[in-house]
Amino acid sequence: MWTVECNGAQIPALGFGTFQLEPEDALRMVDHAIQAGYRHIDTAQIYDNEAAVGEAIAHAPVRREELFLTTKVWINAMRPGKLEASVEESLGKLQTDYVDLLLLHWPNPKVEFQAMFDSLNAVREQGLARHTGVSNYPSDWLARAREASRGPLVTNQIEYHPFLAQKTLQPMLREAGMAVTAYCPLAQGRVFESDTLKAIGEAHGKNPGQVALRWLIQQDGVIAIPRSSREANASANIDIFDFELSEKEMSQVADLADPNGRVISPEGLAPEWDPK
Ligand SMILES: NC(=O)c1ccc[n+]([C@@H]2O[C@H](COP(=O)([O-])OP(=O)(O)OC[C@H]3O[C@@H](n4cnc5c(N)ncnc54)[C@H](OP(=O)(O)O)[C@@H]3O)[C@@H](O)[C@H]2O)c1
Question: How many Å apart are CA 117 and CA 78, to the nearest integer?
Fold first, then answer.
């Protein structure tokens, strides 16, 4: 597996997502994912499965240093003092002294901006997180974050898949040396219905999901974090390093972008997204 270099971090290009996995499924699937070759695991406080992820990692047949572990701070814990305490709580559940990456899960207009980034940086400076970044930040928030953060931000974790282009953020992140971490890389399963992805897959002996994931990681500075509750699917999703999409196929997939392609936009949380 290759890694994506971003502002001093080296992040495995394919990670395993754990959103909506109940603790017992998170334990079973993270255990399987590591055995299948995943070295990058994505969780969050709000997923309520950090303890299960931590248990799977504690019993894994690989050393902690070989894994890249991400968690995210929820919006109710972004104030100074609370943020530091909540990271300590996450680390306790994850049974580790540090996460590789700590993200602010959503933009939070209710917390003083500079103070929030000062806390995020303090946590990194204390060694509790090796790297820091943001999630769901549109371009205006990202520009402010880069100014406010005294240390580098390595990624913006955003929804990105064949049905949702990120024409504003992707070049901006590349310019800033930051990675795009593509969440919902399978559009929560919708990619499996696409005739275009099916046809491209058939030419390579791959399924539509493998084409979508390959399309993402074949782009400069893009990381993908698919989730599955089934061992066979998680194994299939990492089996994407033995084929290559042609330039023509890359464009055919990009052409699937749809103005209504966004899957995640929770009311009360979602910021004003960048124009499509
Ligand atoms: N930062 C954020 O706000 C945010 C938001 C959303 C997600 N995320 C992160 O991104 C990760 C991925 O996003 P996601 O979980 O929403 O969606 P996703 O990975 O795009 O799709 C997951 C869905 O695809 C299905 N699937 C996976 N592999 C498959 C295969 N090989 N064949 C058929 N179906 C397959 C899964 O079903 P089965 O379980 O049946 O395989 C599940 O229903 C999350 O788990 C989380 O870590 C972050």
Answer: 9
